[in-house]
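CORE FACILITY INTAKE
Project code: CF-77B
Contact: R.S. (postdoc)
Sample description: multi-component assembly, two entities in total
Requested service: structural model of the whole complex
Turnaround: standard
Below are the sequence entries exactly as provided by the requester. Do not edit them.
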Amino acid sequence: MSKEKFDYFIKGEKGKYEVVIGLEVHAQVLSKSKLFSGSSTKFGADPNNQVSLIDSAFPGMLPVINEECVKQAIRTGLGLNAKINNYSVFDRKNYFYADLPQGYQISQYKNPIVGEGKVLLDMPYGSKEIGIERLHLEQDAGKSIHDMDPSNTYVDLNRSGIALMEIVSKPDLRSPDEVNAYIKKLRSIMRYLGTCDGNMQEGSLRADVNVSVRKEGDTNFGTRCEIKNVNSIKFMQMAIEYEAARQVELIENGEKIDQETRLFDTKKNETRSMRSKEDAHDYRYFPDPDLLPLKLEQKLINDLKKSLPELPDKKKERFVKEYGLNAYEANVLVSEKEISDYYEEVAKLSDKKLAATWMMGDLFAMLNDRGLDISKSPISAKHFAELVQAIKSGEISGRIAKEVFEIMVESGDNPKKIIESKGMKQQSDPKELEKMINEILSKNKDKVDQYKAGKEKLFGFFVGQVMKLSGGKANPQLTNEILKKLLKG
Amino acid sequence: MSLDKEKIKHVAKLARISVDEAKVESLTKDLNSIFKFIEQLNELNTDKVEPLTSILNQSLRSRKDEISDGKIREKILKNSPKENEEFFVVPKVVE
């Protein structure tokens, strides 16, 4: 497909504008305890119950780094094909906010733990590489709750101090669709690695979105605005669309775009300036005197590299080669590790291509209807494979298979048992079919004559009769063949 | 580097320190002389010297990923100027 067809532009009165997007994704690290304290990171606990004296910034407390968080950042860096820096430094990023008790966030500024990398996106117009600028470790802030009291804000510090990976992309994204693909790919890689659960509802994955626009063909970047803390892909896309249109309008009216921090109001579907962040870029970073530089042994990095699981890009390649799937099928089936595991279990026991078709059709539709993840599927991979094999071997027709599938969902029974107990086996015995068809033809002599006189549409009528008489169990292919033969004679 | 009055006010604002307008003049003078003193270091050639982040020649101490803290809400909230049983309570901050 041609790239032009998918090119995303904002049309102004004075021409077309390209949208340039860069993302700063904040991904919560999967670990039991926080980055610099021993408090639990579990989501949904009672407010302020997972807070230590360190997380609440009592004087005299010393942060001690969690080695697992460091490993998780390295694993993620490796998964992003990025350079791991053997030397990195923790800095203090200074700002005041009620949910940041320290008055600074421990982050990494000049020397991040992970350097440049890249992520491949599968777009309808081919594969596109998005550059990663860096990944660094930092602390999450607490949570402010504004709607529990008319005149006060409540602060819950449970989240305060949980490890975050900030993954900064290069300004390589050009449309809301690419942003969607990029977030999904990052999420998928991190879920394969087990370094972030990617749960956007719980805030484990959120992003700051940098947007600028420029006239088609321009090579210089326009002035960008940063939309803070957007927590769903849908909202990111809506915010980009709104923000790009706003900037184009300013340019066309001859006005200046201020480089500023904006927020996306999900109720009004608009972005607006955050006055409180006027000084937001004056963070006065300096190395945290409480923490020494982080030096990594090359051996640790090599060992982690060896222990990485197979990642989606590699798995996709293998699915195409080993199972004969097309690129689209492979892409869908590797998107989540659980889906690919399920598929591989089914493919081991049944026809690989047919398994993919039925999984992506009926199984996904059913899971979707019920709002279930594949890990909660009412049909086990083993039973599903048996169903695929029953179709492949001709034991049941595709139509009957859909019925068997429904019963499997409701009962959890294996397909063999269902097919046998309900007598759903396909009739594939040519002799019996021929007998049945002869019976039908002799009952409908007038129609046979009409057919022979040239009314070929009646073929469908005969097939219908066979299906009716057999209760839908006649092998459709065989029925066609025998019907044709007998109607000729 | 030299600081003017505006810069002094800006830094004070960032640090949430209230500065009396009458004192800005003398503060600017004091801080500038401090900077001047520190800037003598620039006379040294440090082209081939790695920046020093710490004077301790040891690596960062780390800990295992275990839950060993928390569940002390009562203690923590005791130091909040205003609280209810579950939360710190602060003046409304809404965008």
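Facility notes:
- Residues 310-421 of chain A form one domain.
- Chain A touches chain B through 55 residues (CB under 8 Å).
Invoice: internal transfer
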